[in-house]
Amino acid sequence: MVDFFKEEIAPTSLNMSSKKELLSSAMKRTSEWIFSQEIPSDVTVQVGGVSFSLHKFPLISKSGFVRKVVSESNDADHSIIEIPNVPGGADSFELAAKFCYGINFEISTENIAMLRCAAEYLEMTEDYAVGNLVGRTEAYLNEVALKSLAGAVSVLHMSESLLPIAEEVKLVSRCIDAIAYLACKESQFYMSSRSDSGNDSTISLTTTNSRPIVDWWAEDLAVLRIDIFQRVLIAMVARGFKQYDLGPVLMLYAQKALRGLEVFGKGRKKIEPRQEHEKRVVLETIVSLLPREKNAMSVSFLSVLLRAAIYLETTVACRLDLERRMALQLGQAVLDDLLIPAYSVTGDTLFDVDTMQRILTNYVEYETEGHHFGYKEDDEYISPPPSDMERVGKLMESYLVEIASDRNLPISKFIGLAELIPEQSRVTEDGMYRAIDIYLKVHKSPS
Q1: pLDDT of 117-153, one tens digit each?
Q2: Fold of 40-144
Q3: How far apart are CA 140 and CA 146, in angstroms?
Q4: Is the Cβ–Cβ distance between 280 and 312 less than 8 Å?
Q5: How many CB atoms lie within 10 A of CB 268?
Q6: Which pLDDT tens digit goes with each residue over 194-204?
Q7: Domain spans, the chain
Q8: What is the pTM of this model?
């Protein structure tokens, strides 16, 4: 078995008289097993700027693609063959060439995706040789790679750079199906083992307590491209995975994908347009996948997503969805969750008061009328306890105190927000009076 190391290679042309001086890096890696054949090379295969000095017979005996190129060529010598679009480039072709020569090498979850796609592209099927590379890679996929979550995720991640051929050979769909099946199996095993231990009372429908079910493999999913990640989660739900338990998976993915956004800063945005677009797509997709159940996500996490949505200027529907979700859990929020910066030109308010006003309006409507805000009509409505309203009242008074010192805050916005706070939520008027006092002192007319 031979180990190989990847490196940058420049295009190279070869002739037998000066081969030692002109060997490319690829040829240095393969010279030992090529020249051990004791037969001079009779063809140069050029793949992605890399030249391989090889022999025709081993190649055409197993590759239908190479056989067709040689048979259809007008060049009687056939000394040079160009294969520009091999999936996986020179690295995958080198392994495929070794296979043609009968040289052993290790198949792993890291190289199986490109090997399977390269084998398809090079037409290395049973039509040309028994036990050809397509069959060998299929056997490894079915017997090894797709038998474990880690293996299936690794192969799926590698397949992202091999589209569209990875889709054509159904590599992507098979990985997704394997992940969905194994994730559901692991989740069911975890829950049943907890039940058998007699600790049913410790299993709670909260984000924190449900995280151990998925944490060890959810981090693996975070490497996937957002569209592939979305397909995996949809497949998991179709397999029976509870939407509620997707919360921790989405949190981990969001933390990785949205890292670097200055969602806690103030002033103008500092992000490249292309990066902004990519992150906007990620965020909108994550929000579309959020579980519909109340308390599936913490209000603090929802606040971070809302800040990012405002910062990235996502669709209005995306932002309104997050606002409604925050309103449903407003009684669990702390002041920092509500202090959303205003990402706009200099001169506007420090905090996004308009967004907070909509959140509070949603909360009041939900509390007084039991609105479902787009949830199914048969969803159970549980009226918040009086203590929840009192907590929200105190929280909003603290919010008014915080924004009252903003010199750019118009009196209309201050009053509008204050009037939204339900009277029954005010245990005392101390907080309101304090906020009004601060506002008047900051905004008094110069003498």
Answers
A1: 999 999 999 999 999 999 999 999 999 999 999 999 9
A2: Potassium Channel Kv1.1; Chain A (3.30.710)
A3: 8
A4: yes
A5: 9
A6: 444 444 332 22
A7: 40-144
A8: 0.78
